[in-house]
Amino acid sequence: MLELKNISKTFNKGTVNAKTALDNLSLTLNDGDFVTVIGGNGAGKSTMLNAIAGVFRVDEGSIIADGNDITYLPDYKRASILGRVFQDPMMGTNPNMMIEENMALAMRRGQRRGLKWGITQKEREFYHEQLKLLKLGLEDRLTTKVGLLSGGQRQALTLLMATLKKPKVLLLDEHTAALDPKTAEKVLDMSDRVVEENHLTTLMVTHNMKDAIAHGNRLIMMDAGHIVVDISGEDKKKLTVPDLMALFSKASGSTEANDKMLLG
Question: What's this model's pTM, rounded to 2 decimal places?
Fold first, then answer.
C-alpha cells in the first residue's frame, strides 16, 4: 500500500547549516499494516511523514502509494489518498466553522469545489451517525463552532475527519502528545478502533515507547534518518521497554535516549 524507495532529504543543502533528515530510507507497508514509529528528537520521524504527505519534495528516491508514484505530486493532489492528524489539536480543523461544516469539507477532500457546497439533510444524518461512534456527545452539537471544543474533542473530530473518505494511508503525527494522559489514552483507543474497523494502512509517530509497543502490528525505530529497528508479529507483542532500549542501543551504537521516549 505504501513504499518508500531510498528517499533522502537534506535541509539547507550546501550551507554550514546543512542537516540530513532522511538518509537513503526504504520502507514498505502492506495493506492494513499499523506501524508505530519511535525515535529521539531529530531522528527523522516527522520528516518522513512530511515527505509522504508532500509538504516538500525529497532529494532522491520515490514514494509509491497503492501502486501509484506520488513522488512529485503536490500535497493537495495527495489529499484524496492520504489522511493526517497532527500533534496540535488546533490544526486539521477550522475553529470558526461549525462541526458539520468541517466534516463537509473533509468529505469533499480531493474533489473540485465550487461556490455551491451546501450541506444536505442526508449528509447531516451521516455526520450525526459518524459522530455517535466517538461517544463524546458531539453528534448533538453539529452547529457548534469547533473552536469551542476541548483539545481531546477536537483531536477526536480531526481523526474522524481524516478517515471519513477511507484514505489509502493514514498518518498520525504524535497526535496525542499535546493531550493530558487520560484524554490521550481515549484518543489512542479511538485510533485503534478506527484503523481496525476501516482496515486502514497507518503510520503513527510517537515519542512514547510504551504506546509504540501497545499499538499496531509493527514497530520501527528511527535514528539519524535511518530505520534501525523493525519488528512485528509475535516478537513485537513480547516487547518491553527495556527490550526496545537494548535493541536501540545495539542498532544505533548509542545508549542515549530522549526523555520523551522513556515516559509512559
Answer: 0.87
